[in-house]
Design goal:
With 422 residues, the chain is of the alpha+beta class. The chain has a single domain, classed as Cytochrome p450, CATH 1.10.630. Strands 3-4-10-7-5 form a five-stranded mixed β-sheet. The protein has a three-stranded antiparallel β-sheet with strand order 6-14-11. A two-stranded antiparallel ribbon has the order 1-2. It starts with 28 loop residues before the first strand and ends with a strand.
């Protein structure tokens, strides 16, 4: 799922040393005679209880403070579906490209993510058209074979870590296959991807920024070597051949390829873990997915129910209102996509897994001009993981207590101990 980077990062944020995630809600006020009572809520994205299950927190925020000011991140945070979707849709008012408010974006970070329409259009079209031209069925078949091979090796083990031994190698294999490049060294790439995921939380933990930027440099160097190679196939070959159609400097094409590759690996890795755990907790759902007619709606519902993308940021280009809240030019707005995906105004029975939910206009792949470049490819990959589980040597079972990675922007498991043995 080639989503744009979901960031709680705020490059203007000068705040360090405070407890992560402290919230002062300046919106939810009640007049009491001559006094005004301001309710103070706490929202700590990196708190263990929030990482384990953020949805009760999101429900409270959506009910009591659907638009609130987060002091540490210096951002307005949104939790209602209609507000989040409008911010994602309205690129004229809510910019992804912070150069529109006078900030600088260093060259190594300039990509399709840092452009808004109309400047973004040709570059985005290049990548979308290239991805749609790939043979997803054949890539899916190879992924299916790889999954079956891995499951076969693990069938007799008393326990193994799904994240390390299934999610990581499968995500890297599928991502490399899509681009048509040799798989990078898995441990090395996991380190790069982990640093980039933590970089997106630098508004909460500013110390993450430096390591994340180093990792971005390593990834860009690797991708440049792919572009410089004599022969390349797959999507990379098409991108290199048609790069002039993007009508942007060459580094935008290379950097967007970096974003594409890492988003594919990182999002698939996190999704593979979240989907596996959800299906372990809802075994009847996995059994129902034997019906191929449910797979497409089922994958969308699994992403809505517990997808990896928790939030993304935009910046207001002029003074505006969100509900009754005034947002000034240059202020950061942070839609919490995962909170929006449980909004009962849009999704009946939001906390239930409804595999045939339709319509299902979830925001797990984003929305608008910065929506996931390859959402359809991501769906293919998740379908193959589900098919692999259905054809596995035995039912997958928990073999220990799952633990969550301490990242807020990307919701991911760190360890998922499982077994195929009874």
């Amino acid at each position: 799922m080639h989503c744009s980077a979901f960031g709680l990062e705020n490059p203007k944020n000068p705040i360090c040393g405070r407890r992560p995630g402290r919230l002062m809600n300046r919106v939810n006020r009640q007049s009491m005679g001559d006094q005004t009572m301001t309710r103070t809520l706490r929202y700590e994205p990196l708190d263990l209880r929030t990482l384990t299950d953020p949805y009760p927190v999101y429900r409270q925020l959506r009910d009591e403070a659907p638009v609130f000011w987060h002091e540490q991140m210096q951002s307005w945070v949104l939790t209602r579906y209609r507000d989040c979707r409008e911010v994602l849709r309205n690129h004229e008012l809510f910019a992804r490209d912070r150069r529109r408010i006078g900030e600088e974006v260093p060259e190594f970070r300039q990509s399709v993510q840092t452009l808004d329409p109309p400047e973004q259009g040709a570059l985005r079209s290049l990548f979308v058209n290239t991805l749609h031209a790939q043979d997803f069925d054949e890539i899916g078949r190879r992924a299916r074979n790889r999954i079956a091979e891995l499951f076969g090796h693990l069938a007799d083990r008393d326990g193994f870590d799904w994240m390390k031994e299934i999610a990581a190698p499968i995500s890297l294999a599928i991502s490399a296959d899509l681009l048509g490049v040799q798989e990078p060294d898995l441990p090395s790439y996991i380190s790069i991807s982990d640093a980039l995921a933590r970089r997106m939380d630098s508004g909460l933990l500013p110390a993450n920024a430096e390591a994340g930027d180093r990792a971005r440099g390593l990834l860009n160097t690797m991708v440049k070597a792919w572009f410089d190679a004599e022969d390349c196939s797959g999507a990379l070959g098409d991108i290199r051949q048609d790069a002039d159609k993007a009508r942007v400097p060459d580094h935008y094409v290379r950097n967007t390829t970096s974003v594409l590759f890492n988003a594919s690996f990182g999002t698939l890795y996190a999704t593979a873990g979240n989907v596996a755990l959800t299906l372990l907790q809802h075994p009847e759902a996995l059994e129902r997915l034997r019906d191929e007619r449910l797979l497409s709606t089922g994958v969308d519902e699994l992403v809505r129910f517990d997808g990896p993308a928790q939030g993304t940021s935009r910046v207001a280009t002029r003074r505006t209102m969100i509900g009754t809240t005034v947002v000034d030019p240059g202020q950061i707005v942070l839609p919490l996509l995962a909170a929006a995906n449980r909004d009962p105004e849009e999704f009946p029975q939001p906390d239930e897994l409804v595999l045939d939910r339709s319509p299902n206009r979830h925001l797990g792949f984003g929305w608008g001009p910065h929506a996931c470049l390859g959402a359809s490819f991501g769906q293919v990959a998740v379908k193959e993981i589900i098919r692999g589980l259905l054809a596995a040597p035995g039912p997958l079972r928990l073999a220990g207590v799952p633990t969550r990675r301490r990242t807020a922007t990307v919701r991911s498991l760190d360890v998922l101990p499982v077994t195929f043995r009874p």
